[in-house]
């Protein structure tokens, strides 16, 4: 049974800017430099879009992990929302594991205008392998670890924006 972790944070930038930063593989890897994270795409592009795959490598729990995810949904915040052409104040994208350590992993990223910035929601659903034992490890070990990881990434993004990056 999948476990869901949700982190809601605020970033002091417009939704389109935050959206673009979240899809930048270099920004993503930099947010986890302590884990030695790297990110690579097949074509070398650093900005992801619909259908793109990215392979991450990082050290967690003393083990080197490798996971490839694909962008399966993509809706920019600044694309027209209606026939009048006014920009949307929200957007989203979804990445899903295609190869890696999880039995399944789906990460939905939501971006909503909120005053002078963006309310960003990370909702990650995952299941660990190894049946009932994996389910226990997912709830007791992986869920808190992933919540900290998502919180750290959001803080990195906000600090980057505030520093003018």
TrEMBL record:
Domain of life: Bacteria
Protein name: Cyclase/dehydrase
Organism: Actinoplanes sichuanensis
Annotated InterPro entries: Polyketide_cyclase/dehydratase, START-like_dom_sf
CDD domains: SRPBCC_3 (cd07820)
């Amino acid at each position: 049974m999948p476990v869901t972790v949700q982190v809601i944070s605020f970033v002091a930038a417009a939704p389109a800017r935050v959206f673009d930063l979240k899809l930048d593989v270099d920004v993503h890897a930099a947010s986890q430099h302590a884990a030695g994270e790297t990110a690579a795409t097949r074509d070398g592009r650093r900005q992801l879009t619909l259908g793109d795959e990215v392979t991450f490598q990082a050290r967690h729990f003393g083990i080197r992990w490798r996971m490839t995810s694909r962008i399966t949904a993509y809706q920019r915040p600044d694309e027209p929302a209606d026939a009048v052409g006014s920009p949307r104040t929200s957007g989203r994208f979804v990445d899903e594991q295609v190869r890696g350590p999880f039995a399944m992993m789906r990460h939905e990223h939501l971006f909503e205008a909120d005053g002078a910035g963006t309310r960003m929601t990370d909702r990650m659903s995952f299941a660990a392998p190894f049946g009932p034992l994996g389910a226990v490890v997912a709830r007791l070990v992986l869920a808190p670890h992933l919540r900290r990881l998502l919180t750290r990434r959001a803080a990195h993004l906000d600090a980057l924006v505030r520093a003018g990056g």
